[in-house]
Specification:
Helix content: 40-55%
CATH superfamily of the largest domain: Aldolase class I
Shape: globular
Largest sheet: 8 strands, parallel, barrel
Bound molecules: flavin mononucleotide
Number of helices: 15
Distance between the termini: 34 Å
Structural class: alpha/beta
Number of strands: 8
CATH class of the largest domain: Alpha Beta
Number of domains: 2
Radius of gyration: 20 Å
């Protein structure tokens, strides 16, 4: 994959991406997004660079992916440039198209270890990480960061320029500060300003509801990222405000849990709970089914709930079901977001 890939992609039009999300963006989630909206570029959830280097089991679970997910971006976190170098080589060998470095996670335990947002302050280490990686691999390297510790005016621009000089091929910025974590509204002003000072593409992130909303927020940027807006709603990546019918929703729910079970066995059934309830978020008549879904223990349990919905709401199967678009972002709590 050429280091200019992002630049070439940006020339074709706005880049629409799935934001990296711990506990979400595994291979099944990415396959579902790509199936519904094939043009979407998917970032993985984050993995420890040290963990990848030392654990064959993590290499196997994190790096195996389906051809459907291509071009795949694997995100890693850590603080040791040597570990990043070795992890990047493994990621390249596994066939990923890019490697992305997390320099924005605000979780206390992550920051205390010198990872994530901490690298916005330890900038020499941040630059060395990118330098080491870009010397070691041919695939492009990107960085995902935040506006800064308390505001973008502090040093977002020199920080990102340093990353570009060190070899980063793309920067994506979540329009909140470390101190904000997930509170308040995302502010894109600093991200637009940043783009004026870089030659590499910049992607904006924070509170995008769907593709059309991403276009509204795009400004001078090369693309946008959608995170929470995609929970239970892979259709959010389609232009034109696509609204699925109940039948389409149930079909994708079925495929999602099947992929989870195929990839993770029993753990996949337990993980299905949180994903499946989100597909039914924002509808008035689903309380009973959501209650059943959060306690499913087997594939038979899941199948039964979905069959009941089909049977008991057969009149809605071909109806396009509109839900409050803000529903997921407004009601989501940041408990558990990249270990918060
Ligand atoms: C559950 C959850 C897990 C997340 N995990 C990661 C992660 O692993 N790496 C990362 O860079 N950002 C992570 N984030 C932050 C998102 O990538 C994104 O920046 C943030 O959710 C704002 O975008 P949104 O408003 O579209 O959700 C996570 C967010 C959530 C909600």
């Amino acid at each position: 994959m050429s280091k200019d890939f992002w630049k070439n992609l940006a020339l074709k039009g706005p880049i629409s991406t799935l934001a990296p999300m711990d506990g979400y963006c595994d291979s099944p989630y990415r396959q579902i997004v790509k199936k519904v909206a094939p043009e979407t570029i998917c970032f993985s959830e984050f993995y420890s660079a040290d963990g990848l280097v030392h654990s064959k089991q993590l290499q196997q679970s994190a790096l195996s992916h389906n051809i459907l997910e291509k071009p795949l971006i694997i995100q890693i976190f850590g603080k040791d440039p040597e570990m990043f170098r070795k992890a990047a080589i493994l990621i390249e060998q596994a066939g990923a198209a890019w490697v992305d470095v997390n320099m924005g996670c605000p979780a206390k335990k992550v920051v205390k270890s010198g990872h994530g947002s901490s690298l916005m302050i330890h900038t020499d280490t941040a630059f060395r990480i990118i330098e080491e990686m870009s010397k070691a691999v041919k695939i492009p390297i990107s960085v995902k960061t935040r506006l800064g510790w308390t505001g973008w005016e502090e040093h977002l621009i020199p920080f990102a320029q340093g990353l570009e000089n060190a070899g980063a091929n793309l920067i994506s910025v979540h329009g909140r500060t470390y101190q904000q974590a997930f509170s308040g509204k995302a502010d894109w002003t600093g991200i637009y300003e940043l783009k004026k000072h870089l030659t590499i593409p910049v992607i904006g992130n924070g509170d995008v509801l769907d593709y059309d909303d991403g276009l509204k927020k795009l400004g001078n940027l090369s693309g946008f990222m959608i995170g929470r807006g995609s929970f239970g709603n892979p259709w959010c990546f389609l232009p034109g405000g696509y609204i699925p019918t109940l039948s389409e929703i149930l079909t994708i729910m079925h495929e999602h849990w099947q992929l989870l079970v195929e990839h993770k066995g029993r753990k996949g059934i337990l993980e299905s709970r949180k994903h499946l309830v989100q597909y039914l978020h924002g509808f008035a008549w689903v309380k009973e089914y959501r209650k059943s879904l959060v306690s499913v223990e087997s594939v038979e349990d899941i199948d039964m709930v979905l069959a009941r919905i089909r049977h008991e709401h057969s009149n809605l199967l071909n109806v396009k079901l509109e839900r409050g678009k803000e529903a997921m972002i407004d009601t989501w709590t940041d408990e558990g977001a990249c270990g918060l």
